[in-house]
Specification:
The complex is a heterodimer. Chain A is built from eleven helices and 14 strands. Chain A is an alpha+beta fold. In chain A, β2, α2 and β3 form a beta-alpha-beta unit. The longest helix of chain A has 19 residues. By secondary structure, chain B is of the alpha+beta class. Chain B is 33% helix and 16% strand. Chain B starts with a strand and ends with a helix. The chains are: A alpha+beta, B alpha+beta. At the A-B interface, α2 and α5 of A face β4 of B.
Amino acid sequence: MAVRVARDLDDAMHALAADPAVVLLAGGTDLMVDINFGRRRPESIVAIDQVDELRAIHQDGRVRVGAGVTYTRLLAEDVASRALREASRTVGSPQIRNAGTIGGNIATSSPAGDALPVLAALDARIVVRSLRGERSVPFAYWMTGPKRNIRAPDEIVVAAEWEPAGGAQTFMKVGTRNAMVIAVASLALVVDRANATVRVALGSCGPTIMRAYEAEAFARGIFEELGWDRPTRPSESACAAFGTHVAAAARPIDDVRGTKAYRRHVLAVMGARALSRVSVLE
Amino acid sequence: MTELRLRVNGVERQTAVPDHESLLTTLRERLGLPGSKNACEQGECGSCSVLMDGELVCSCLVLSAAAQDREIVTVEALSSGDALHPLQQAFVDAGAVQCGFCTPGLIVSAYALLRANPEPSELEVREALAGNICRCTGYGKILEAVQRASREMYRR
């Protein structure tokens, strides 16, 4: 049978182990476009959208979001990340958010996937499982190129996990309109006050999600001075300098959605605004 | 081919579908329900919007063979005989229909909105209809129609 609906995770893992060419179908928002346009004709498809184990959200100190959780649910339920909520709201439209899943973003690994800069800035781990066992990979090692990642052919993305990083975080995205837009450039910033850490990650600005490490070090210096615990806005020039560091970390290209130069420009603007916004959040 | 069983607009339906067929094609070409429209086939335009197990989705992005036993509601379910649904009547009254191609998708999306949020603000209507594209009326009359239907359906 060429199309089957997996009853549970075990069922799906057995199907993949037996035939690594099996294509997994979750929300369908990527795969069905390729099928409708004749770009892909998978011989064998296993639908995993009915697998309950993939749809769970757990919170016990750590947050664990199942790969099958849709963007609509990420908006409705508490996953201890303001930035992920903000990113989820920018995904497609209500129709797309009802179908599209965080696991789809992770497995497809498009540099424009809206959830991905947030996962990078949360220092999340990606959990994959096969009949051989389970492993969890820091997001920084997950993507290896545009739509490429280190998932083995018999593995299924089962969840993303992260430690709550507090409320000082945000997501920003530039596109031609608010809805139904693929990011021209996006940015997620997390200021983890409790752990005195800053992480900033960029989407649609390189072959993978890019961390802006120098910008992070620069921002740590700012918060050392201002105090980590006290929501205080840095000077305008400090925010602008942070934006310049952010833009310098990008490796953008010219493509149909925007130019290299424009991407660098908006990254500097978004970086400055994001720091200014986040610095006054608890 | 897969033998597909669905509940569509309250009726059990059964049909054989090719492996790569979308739910939109199945509804239109096999089940005699052409209300859902086929335009972009990539989830951009919303013309094919239906409810699947109560959730608004683009039927072009649903693989029929993987939709076994799901419950589907299409635009055809909304009117009763010749009596239009209040949303449909509001679209007529407000002049929210020009060529009409996008209308079924907009009606289904607005139906999903009002069910969850009976008295939406204009901003909420805009966000809820962001996945439906109209290329001729402009959106003013459509927004007006949804507000009108909300008043009609949930008049206090």
